[in-house]
């Protein structure tokens, strides 16, 4: 279970290095569009426990609620190719009392070329009724410790975000 520690630094971004598997690619050797979601979600699921000491299932059991995706916005920039090593980053860009926006993005291994950006908007809902509910307890602590809290995120489109991230990668 996540226990906030004021003395600890909580990274705002997760990162994984993965190889694109043959079985996940189309005949042109590009990662299949639907498989990007698997790569993104698996990377975050692997990194959250390592970085934050949190198994999300523990929050689900304790609070009897979970996040449910109600919107994906994805932009495919450059194809990920079979056998290629890539970097997958994720971060909570924004949250309020019952919603989170998670940004995932994929780059080449050297983190110089943006491949894909995904925004997933999720509502926190009760398991029993499937109705929206507010974040509470350790969930709030986790979000406050790990979220970027970018209130300006709604001021631009994913297309503009792709440009921003691409420029950031070129600078580094």
From TrEMBL:
A GO molecular-function annotation: hydrolase activity
Protein name per UniProt: YbgC/YbaW family acyl-CoA thioester hydrolase
Keyword Hydrolase among record annotations: yes
Keywords: Hydrolase
InterPro entries in alphabetical order: HotDog_dom_sf (IPR029069)
């Amino acid at each position: 279970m996540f226990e906030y520690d004021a003395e600890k630094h909580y990274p705002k971004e997760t990162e994984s290095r993965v190889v694109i598997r043959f079985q996940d690619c189309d005949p042109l050797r590009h990662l299949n569009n639907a498989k990007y979601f698997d790569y993104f979600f698996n990377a975050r699921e692997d990194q959250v426990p390592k970085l934050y000491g949190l198994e999300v299932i523990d929050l689900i059991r304790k609070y009897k609620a979970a996040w449910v995706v109600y919107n994906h916005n994805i932009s495919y920039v450059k194809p990920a190719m079979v056998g290629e090593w890539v970097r997958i980053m994720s971060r909570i860009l924004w949250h309020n009392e019952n919603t989170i926006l998670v940004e995932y993005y994929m780059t080449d291994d050297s983190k110089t070329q943006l491949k894909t950006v995904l925004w997933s908007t999720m509502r926190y809902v009760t398991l029993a009724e499937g109705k929206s509910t507010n974040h509470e307890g350790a969930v709030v602590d986790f979000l406050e410790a790990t979220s970027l809290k970018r209130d300006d995120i709604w001021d631009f489109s994913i297309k503009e975000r792709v440009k921003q991230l691409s420029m950031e990668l070129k600078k580094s």
